[in-house]
């Protein structure tokens, strides 16, 4: 069976975790600080704050952006559900906008139509690693006095207009879940160029504590901490950070390897006219966190039938990215939402295996089975 994904972890990551455990300092400490400094340097952002996962990163981002009850935040419904949930956590309302069929990213014209007096921010997702048009959304936010928050959960190592994701705007959130391109088990990071955000995020992730454990530990003078606001325990551990430092060293290589697989798929499916392949426009650089293919109307094999057939041939696949408004939690809260483009994309997309290392035999096996199954049943060359 060829799996849909697997994390690229080696002896080096295992050794780093082992060594960290034996130092006796296992929660947020020196390794977390080192990982933050290296991640900031990698992305080109001034600061980075490590947290327990991307969902908590998004929650803290809502708080530092000043989002609260009564506010609206525009985001895609077609995203992992944590995107919308993070808006609910602060008592605000997610307002779902449509995405572009070619990129799965927010459709700016549709977003603009949904701006009201209550809108405070746009939560911009770089879906499955393909950067959204950050400059255009920043311009829209500036024009309406809105905050821009980037959900870059899937986009570590992706780039937009020659600069890595993480350096463009004031709040960018990353995930290190095993389904993303680099992993620390669970884990998240927020990059920012704002010193105010940096200081507040550090407070909020650790109970609002004025002095962190490491500073207190290293101090030669007595220090007593104060808890200056109600915070959270959203810390990353030093064990995770030690793994993250090793993963970060490999990130550019992992992205290059992923792009080779994506290029091989694109070459193999180029001439099949009943599928739409990912579109990477000039100035956009995807890490291909996932490789999603859309089955056009002239594709006669049903998506789920195709998935079952591929499974029987030893190829694991996943259906298209979920639409949050069709999950029970949101259906109950906000019934009657219709987002035809997002719904169609979810229903007619299929995600193929993509991981590192993937042998050329594996890539060929997936390509052949996919091409055969799709073309056999379709009016499609
Ligand atoms: C994975 C993902 C998240 C959640 O990340 P966690 O680290 O698992 O909390 C949020 N947004 C998007 C777009 C994601 O893909």
TrEMBL record:
GO terms for molecular function: GDP-4-dehydro-6-deoxy-D-mannose-4-aminotransferase activity; pyridoxal phosphate binding. It comes from Pontibacter virosus. It holds the Pfam family DegT_DnrJ_EryC1. The keyword Iron-sulfur does not apply. This is GDP-perosamine synthase. The modification N6-(pyridoxal phosphate)lysine is found at residue 180. It comes from the Bacteria. The active site is at residue 180. GO terms for biological process: polysaccharide biosynthetic process. Its EC number is 2.6.1.102. Pathway: Bacterial outer membrane biogenesis; LPS O-antigen biosynthesis. It is an enzyme of class 2 (transferase). Its cofactor is pyridoxal 5'-phosphate. The keyword Glycoprotein does not apply.
């Amino acid at each position: 069976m060829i799996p849909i994904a697997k994390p690229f972890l080696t002896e080096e990551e295992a050794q780093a975790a082992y060594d960290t455990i034996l130092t006796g300092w296992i929660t947020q400490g020196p390794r977390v600080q080192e990982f933050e400094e290296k991640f900031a340097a990698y992305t080109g952002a001034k600061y980075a704050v490590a947290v327990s996962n991307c969902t908590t990163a998004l929650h803290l981002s809502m708080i530092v952006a000043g989002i609260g009850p009564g506010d609206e935040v525009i985001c895609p419904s077609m995203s992992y559900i944590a995107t919308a949930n993070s808006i609910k956590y602060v008592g605000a309302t997610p307002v779902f906008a449509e995405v572009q069929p070619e990129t799965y990213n927010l459709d700016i014209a549709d977003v603009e139509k949904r701006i009201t007096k209550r809108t405070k921010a746009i939560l911009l997702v770089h879906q499955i690693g393909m950067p959204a048009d950050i400059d255009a959304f920043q311009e829209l936010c500036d024009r309406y006095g809105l905050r821009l928050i980037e959900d870059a959960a899937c986009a570590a190592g992706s780039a937009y207009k020659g600069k890595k994701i993480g350096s463009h705007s004031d709040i960018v959130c990353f995930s290190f879940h095993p389904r993303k391109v680099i992993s620390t088990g669970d884990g998240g990071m927020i990059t920012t160029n704002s010193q105010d955000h940096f200081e507040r995020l550090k407070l909020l992730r650790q109970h609002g504590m004025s002095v962190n454990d490491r500073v207190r530990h290293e101090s030669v003078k007595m220090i007593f901490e104060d808890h200056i606001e109600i915070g959270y325990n959203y810390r990353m551990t030093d064990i995770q950070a030690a793994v993250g430092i090793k993963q970060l060293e490999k990130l550019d290589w992992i992205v290059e390897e992923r792009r080779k697989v994506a290029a091989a798929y694109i070459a193999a499916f180029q001439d099949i006219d009943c599928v739409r392949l990912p579109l990477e426009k000039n100035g956009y650089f995807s890490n291909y966190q996932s490789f999603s293919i859309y089955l056009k109307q002239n594709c006669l094999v049903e998506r789920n039938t195709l998935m079952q057939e591929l499974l029987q041939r030893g190829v694991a696949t996943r259906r298209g990215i979920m639409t949050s408004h069709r999950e029970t939690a949101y259906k109950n809260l906000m019934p009657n939402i219709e987002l035809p483009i997002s719904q169609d994309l979810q229903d007619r997309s299929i995600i193929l295996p993509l991981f590192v290392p993937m042998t050329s035999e594996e890539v060929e096996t997936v390509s052949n089975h996919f091409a055969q199954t799709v073309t056999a049943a379709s009016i499609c060359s």
